[in-house]
Amino acid sequence: MALVKQVMIELWGRSNAYNVQKPLWLLAELGIDFKQHDIGSRAGDLETPEFLKLNPQARIPVLKHGAAVVWESNSILRYLATIFAASALYPDDALQRSQVERWMDWELASLQPAFIDLFWGYYRTPPALRDAAAIDRAQRQCRLHFAALDRQLRAQPFVAGDFFSLADIACGVCLFRYFNMGLAVEEPSQVMRWYRQLSQRRGFRHTIMQPFAELEGRSEF
Ligand SMILES: N[C@@H](CCC(=O)N[C@@H](CS)C(=O)NCC(=O)O)C(=O)O
């Protein structure tokens, strides 16, 4: 563990990118130093031969830990929690782990696509170009997903149980933007309670609760 900690961590990706914010938040939670390469902000950034060697998908985030390279944001979360023995966030017990993982999978497969449709369709599209029907559809999808999350949070303080975990990071990364992008959205009571709890965490405030106005009406990365 001590040796593992000495190996340099590098993270590729701009701090205002949704999926980059996940490892940024976890690294803050774990108090791990790392070097960030702020890319993804300029056209062509992710298509260089050097970057494509790291991630053939031409997407951020990418993490490098010594010789190990990991891409896909939720895989990076699992890798970091495993390497840094953060079993409180990513339990060893098979069932508890599956509770964390199923919500991480759900975030990638269901919540994120709906949220991204809404964020891009509304916030990142200049008003004159917005498609009201598509925004409405994305908003309805988000409402359904947040209702499901709300039901889950009725029974327990955090997404996967009584403990803060990788599932809270994956599912919680969109909250600040969802509630602050200027759209009237429903505020399910348990999601709001959970959001207030997350807002008390330094890592959440420093990485997620950050101004994002530079993305408004900007249809390029
Ligand atoms: N499923 C991938 C999605 C990666 C992805 O789409 N990343 C976006 C940022 S959130 C990206 O690379 N955008 C291009 C850019 O920012 O230049 C993951 O979770 O890592």
Give the SSE map.
Elements (H helix, E strand, L loop, with lengths): L1 H5 L2 E4 L5 H13 L4 E3 L11 H6 L7 E4 L2 E4 L1 H11 L10 H30 L8 H23 L11 H7 L2 H6 L8 H11 L2 H6 L14
Written account of the structure:
Helices cover about 55% and strands about 5% of the residues. The chain is globular, with a radius of gyration of 17 Å. It has about 220 residues and is of the alpha+beta class. The chain has a 4-stranded mixed beta sheet, with helices on one face. The chain is built from 10 helices and 4 strands. A hairpin with a 2-residue loop joins strand 3 (about 60-65) and strand 4 (about 70). It has 2 domains: about 1-85, 3-Layer(aba) Sandwich (Glutaredoxin); about 95-210, Glutathione S-transferase Yfyf (Class Pi), Chain A, domain 2, CATH 1.20.1050. The protein has helices spanning about 1-5, 20-30, 50-55, 75-85, 95-125, 130-155, 165-170, 175-180, 190-200, 200-205, and strands spanning about 10, 35, 60-65, 70. Glutathione binds next to helix 2.
